[in-house]
Amino acid sequence: MFVATYAKSGTNWIMQIVTQLAWHGKAEFQHIHELVPWPDSEAFGPMKRFAIPIGIDSVWKSLSERKRAVKTHLNWDLIPFSEEARYIMVIRDPKDVFVSGYHFFK
Question: What is the pLDDT of residues 37-72, one digit of tens each?
């Protein structure tokens, strides 16, 4: 499951929902990025510390259904396509994105 959003548009909220659905409500973690890879964070230097690498598959392979979420802020045309994958695209009012980003980066 790809969770694709623009930054500050509810990404963590959606990742929480998807992860709990995959784990049948029993996912336990200190931060969602312990379970959800964020491959495009590699391009942002210090941001790469916020997610497990996509190559580490022991977390999702331990699940009986072998499902996982993958976080991305990439544009739709840059996200790998697979018939087997599912995609959640989140759109938020740009004004709210700006206000959220302002307070986050402040």
Answer: 888 877 666 666 777 777 777 777 777 677 888 999
Q: What is the mean pLDDT of residues 25-29?
A: 88
73 in active site: yes
55: containing domain: 2-105
Query: Counting Cβ atoms within 10 Å, is residue 79 exposed (0-12), middle (13-18) or buried (19+)?
Result: middle
Beta bridge partners of 87: 2
Report how many domains make up the chain: 1
Residue listed under structure tokens 């784990």: 23
What's the pTM value of the predicted model, to 2 decimals? 0.76
Measure the CA–CA gap between 42 and 47, rounded to whole angstroms: 7
Name the catalytic one among 31, 33, 73, 103. 73
